[in-house]
Design brief:
- Pfam families: FAD_binding_6 (PF00970), Globin (PF00042), NAD_binding_1 (PF00175).
- It is an enzyme of class 1 (oxidoreductase).
- One of its GO terms (molecular function) is nitric oxide dioxygenase NAD(P)H activity.
- Its cofactor is heme b; FAD.
- This is Flavohemoprotein.
- With about 400 residues, this protein is of the alpha/beta class.
- The protein folds into three domains: about 5-145, Globin-like, CATH 1.10.490.10; about 155-255, Elongation Factor Tu (Ef-tu), domain 3 (Beta Barrel), CATH 2.40.30.10; about 270-395, Rossmann fold (3-Layer(aba) Sandwich).
- The protein has twelve helices and twelve strands.
- The chain has helices spanning about 5-10, 15-35, 45-50, 50-65, 75-90, 95-110, 115-145, 235-245, 280-290, 315-320, 355-360, 370-385, and strands at about 155-165, 170-175, 190-195, 205-210, 220-225, 250-255, 270-275, 300-305, 325-330, 345-350, 365-370, 390-395.
- The strands form two sheets. A six-stranded antiparallel sheet has the order 4-3-6-1-2-5. Strands 10-9-8-7-11-12 form a six-stranded parallel sheet, with helices on both faces.
- The longest helix is centred in the N-terminal third of the chain and has 31 residues, at about 115-145.
- The relative contact order is 0.10.
Length: about 400
């Protein structure tokens, strides 16, 4: 446990972290990869180039300092990040390496401000936080390894079917190479793929949502091809999967993970709000919910640029026909003329406050997934409709972030 004196020192650094947090975490990753190049096999370098990982870590460090008096308050975040770490293969041996480089980055960035007293306090605090992560993640490793169909590390799966769902999204159906069973997962969870791409020095690890309901002998992931745009290069792994991975190929996969999940036994109406490929975890949820309770009150509103990039149109339309309790609406930013003729087309433009006000029940649980600007818009609109914050659930693709 931390002494009160140590907690006081950590609390005193909160204003400094607010200013220098991202500079510290940027320098941390530079040091980490210089000193331990093997860590490049774990961390997503695209997120590094975009600054997303640095920002997410800075927010986590700031939160730890802010809540140091009651460190248990950050346990939900520890569990959320722990799922990602377990999928990526982070182990207890990594934490001393991370701590050494994080404290080193603090010293470099803060200079004379990083006194021995402050660094000593942060070393103690890091030890407590690392122990929390290690404990949570070890429990997760044990749980997935011992459950029916579970496994340790990365297991080889064979691609048994590849389906183009839209101009930019392709589904991959995969089954275990050993012919064994697969672990049941919670709707909303994801898989981690470990892929060696010819010409690249380091292994790539990426996480993709499971887009079908649990209980089948295969897994389905649905991947958006990330083309180059706005000065950013194309997605290394997504384009490789689209262009090079075919039926019969092998993918190495970690067991399902993630805490953005739906309890299908809920008695509340459910509203799903998705943008683009954000529909993949929600698709698993809606399938699972309606299988468990075919009469459950569900509203699903999906946004896409136009019909050409809208995946799973037929699948959702068939669900809506089979389940009159499912209200399904489509909003296209730039609809083609034929898009406007679709049975579930609601309006052109965006999912706005007026549409939500008219179409969704207030006493529902809301699940939101899509690009960050989309999620921010949806959460803001729901708050304006006086939806309680504890009834709003959302998922970030990539490093955990903030909608602020």
């Amino acid at each position: 446990m931390l002494s009160q004196a140590t907690k006081d020192i950590i609390t005193s650094t909160v204003p400094v972290l607010e200013i220098y947090g991202e500079r510290i975490t940027t320098r941390f990753y530079e040091r980490l990869f210089q000193n331990e190049p093997s860590m490049l096999d774990i961390f997503n370098q695209t997120n590094q180039r975009k600054g997303q990982q640095q920002t997410a870590l800075a927010q986590a460090v700031y939160a730890a300092a802010l809540h140091i008096e009651h460190i248990e308050d950050i346990l939900p975040v520890v569990k959320q990040i722990g799922h990602k770490h377990r999928g990526l293969g982070v182990t207890p041996e990594h934490y001393p390496i991370i701590g050494e480089n994080l404290l080193g980055a603090m010293k470099e960035v803060l200079g004379d401000g990083a006194t021995d007293e402050i660094i000593g306090a942060w070393a103690q605090a890091y030890g407590v936080i690392a122990d929390a992560f290690i404990g949570v993640e070890q429990d997760m490793y044990a749980q997935v390894a011992t459950q029916t169909g579970g496994w340790e590390g990365f297991r080889p799966f064979i691609v048994v079917k590849k389906v183009q769902e839209s101009d930019v999204i392709t589904s991959f159906y995969i089954e275990p190479e050993d012919g064994g069973t697969v672990a049941v997962y919670e709707p909303g969870q994801y898989l981690t793929l470990k892929i060696d791409i010819p010409g690249l020095a380091h292994t790539q690890r990426r996480q993709y949502s499971l887009s079908d309901e649990p209980g089948k002998p295969y897994y389905r992931i649905s991947v958006k091809r990330e083309d180059a745009h706005d000065g950013w290069p194309e997605g290394i792994v997504s384009t490789y999967l689209h262009h090079h991975v075919q039926v019969g190929d092998t993918l190495h996969v970690a067991a399902p993970a993630g805490d953005f999940t739906l309890d299908v036994t809920t008695h509340h109406p459910i509203v799903f709000l998705s943008g683009g490929v954000g529909m993949t975890p929600l698709l698993s949820m809606v399938h699972s919910l309606l299988t468990y309770d075919p009469q459950h009150e569900v509203t699903y509103v999906h946004a896409a640029i136009h019909g050409g990039v809208h995946a799973f149109q037929t699948e959702m339309e068939e669900l809506a026909i089979a389940h009159p309790s499912l209200q399904y609406y489509i909003v296209y930013e730039k609809p083609h003329e034929e898009d406007k003729q679709r049975a579930h087309f609601a309006q052109a433009g965006y999912i706005d406050l007026a549409l939500l006000d008219a179409r969704v029940p207030r006493d529902a649980e809301f699940y939101v997934c899509g690009p960050k600007p989309f999620m921010k818009s949806m959460v803001t609109s729901l708050q304006q409709l006086n939806v309680s914050s504890d009834h709003i659930h959302y998922e970030f693709f990539g490093p955990q972030g903030s909608l602020e």
